[in-house]
């Protein structure tokens, strides 16, 4: 209950901090917020050329297929990777003002969530350009996104906590996230490129791979995601988040001594 009370209590700060971070990200560039459009489009073009044209990929709507994969992975990867050093990067704030430290992660998720919405708008535009058939089953991206956010929050909080105590965790996570990316099906279809039963194992136990596949199925192919897996990941995300919040509540007073 304290968690939800704190969300309400600090909601004004979280929104203001997210706005400030968004402005700071583009303050030194000529194109400003336009980069939030150009960057994902540029990545899509590069991946589409390399994995579509050079490798003669026959996946339907391949540029949009790539864009969706990068959209989901980008949100999860950016939030998770930044969580490791979040306390140390906010050392001044953490040492001078008390607030629940998970607020820092929520602010970051607001920032990345805003950019996610921009990229999702681009996804719809790309779907129109490539004449993807729209389906009522697209609505399933909503519960899928909710479960993705819950899992990202729980995983990010665990990294936030241990990032204070393990000096080299940031370096290790760069390697882990790079390997993880290649097993998540961003630029290929897990179901067709990886033989069974390994493909099914990946889609069951690799969260990003499941969420990417579920988004693509709902948006591109008009099918419902695997509800058993979706419910399982919801349970995993809730349990992970509860454990992570408990870790933060128990250890956050010790963070100042460690940084």
Compact description:
This protein is mostly helical and 259 residues long. 76% of the residues lie in helices and 0% in strands. It has 14 helices and no strands.
Task: Based on the model shown, name its key terms.
259 residues
Quote the distance from N terminus to C terminus: 29 Å
Overall morphology: globular
Computed Rg: 19 Å
Helix content: over 70%
Structural class category: mainly alpha
What is the number of strand segments?
A: 0
Unreliable segments of 5+ consecutive residues: none
Main pleated-sheet profile: none
Q: How many helices does DSSP assign?
A: 14
Averaged pLDDT, please?
92
Strand content: under 5%
Integer tally of domains: 1
Overview of the structural elements:
By secondary structure, the chain is mainly alpha-helical. The chain has one domain (2-258). Helix content is 76%, strand content 0%. The longest helix has 28 residues, at 102-129.
């Amino acid at each position: 209950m304290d968690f939800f009370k704190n969300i309400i209590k600090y909601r004004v700060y979280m929104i203001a901090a997210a706005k400030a971070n968004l402005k700071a990200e583009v303050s030194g560039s000529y194109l400003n917020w336009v980069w939030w459009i150009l960057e994902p489009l540029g990545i899509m073009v590069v991946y589409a050329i390399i994995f579509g044209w050079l490798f003669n990929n026959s996946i339907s709507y391949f540029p949009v297929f790539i864009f969706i994969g990068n959209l989901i992975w980008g949100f999860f990867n950016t939030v998770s990777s930044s969580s490791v050093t979040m306390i140390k990067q906010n050392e001044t704030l953490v040492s001078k003002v008390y607030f629940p430290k998970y607020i820092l992660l929520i602010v970051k998720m607001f920032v990345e969530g805003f950019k996610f919405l921009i990229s999702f708008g681009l996804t719809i535009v790309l779907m129109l350009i490539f004449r993807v058939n729209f389906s009522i089953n697209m609505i399933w991206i909503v519960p899928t996104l909710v479960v993705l956010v819950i899992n990202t929050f729980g995983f990010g909080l665990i990294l936030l906590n241990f990032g204070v105590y393990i000096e080299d965790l940031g370096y290790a996570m760069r390697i882990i996230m790079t390997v993880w990316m290649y097993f998540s099906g961003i630029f290929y279809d897990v179901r067709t490129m990886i033989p069974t039963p390994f493909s099914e194992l990946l889609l069951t136990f690799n969260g990003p791979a499941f969420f990417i596949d579920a988004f693509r199925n709902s948006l591109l192919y008009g099918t419902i995601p695997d509800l058993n897996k979706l419910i399982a990941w919801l349970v995993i995300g809730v349990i992970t988040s509860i454990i992570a919040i408990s870790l933060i509540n128990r250890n956050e007073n010790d963070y100042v001594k460690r940084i």
